Amino acid sequence: MADCTHDCSTCASNCGTRSKTSFIKPPHMLSHITRVVAVASGKGGVGKSLVTGLLAVRAQAMGYKTAILDADVTGPSIPKAFGVHDLATGTDGNIEPVVSRSGIKMISMNSLLEHEDDPVVWRGTLIAGAALQFWTDVVWGDIDIMFIDMPPGTGDVPLSVFQSIPLSGVVVVTTPQQLVEMIVKKNVNMAGMLSVPLLGLVENMSYFTCPDCGKRHEIFGESKAEELARAYVFPAVARIPIDPAMSRLADMGRVEEAETDYLADVFAQIARSREIKNYL
Ligand code: ADP
Q1: Residues with CB under 6 A from ligand 1
Q2: How far apart are CA 268 and CA 271, in angstroms?
Q3: What is the pLDDT of residues 147-156, one digit of tens each?
Q4: Is the pLDDT at 12 greater than 70, yes or no?
Q5: Could you say which DSSP state residue 159 is in?
Q6: Is 249 helix (H, G, I), strand (E, B) or coil?
Q7: CATH assignment of 24-271, among 3.40.50.300, 3.30.1380.10, 3.40.50.10490, 3.30.1330.130
Q8: What is the residue extent of each domain of the chain?
């Protein structure tokens, strides 16, 4: 301890006064982003990308300058749902995002691949690196709310994105099914470990309303949304029905026409979440 230089970055000692290492990276110098919200799920296929898209559509419609960073590098689906097929332009280290019809700025692996059906067959470190470059190398300009479509799960790639990008909070997307509690708990634990606030729990494909008789059917099982939200202290909860019209709109690149009222309470939490400038 006698030789302490108070520079923890070059010291291997675990002396107890060690400052907490931060892996947070600043965005591009021409990006001024007020809030960043991660949309996460314990596994793929639960509608995380659709929910990310719907939240962004709602934000933009309410007058917020909105962006989507599609960090789901191996399963990128955001630009397609918005009908954006342009390739991103720019040079190394200065990438211009693509823009949707309503003005949402977005970047995705699909915006960089000449053929959007090309598979991304990279190792985890490269995948995480690409997602981080979307943060550090894209010239986002002025953005009020950025949504990050996270890679599914709680493995190395989502962890590295969580650690490197300052977050206002996280929205967890799930479906009603067995084991859902364990899956949500993993997301909650990861957010807790990294001191990222939980903003909302979205139970997607929660029920189906019969178009003939109007009766609600809980196709994948009884809803656990309220119970889980109480147990893990999510300040807002949303239930989105199975709606073939919604997936048709996403397939046709017209997600901006979809209903977003289901997400009103979760969005209200996002709009008042912490600003990231204090965490950079
Ligand atoms: P993830 O990002 O979790 O892998 P996606 O958002 O890509 O999942 O959704 C998977 C598929 O399910 C997509 O075709 C999407 O349009 C469809 N889908 C998602 N949520 C719903 C819903 N509530 N009703 C109908 N189809 C849905």
Answers
A1: 41, 44-50, 75, 77, 204-205, 240, 242-244, 246-247, 250
A2: 5
A3: 999 998 888 8
A4: no
A5: H
A6: helix
A7: 3.40.50.300
A8: 24-271
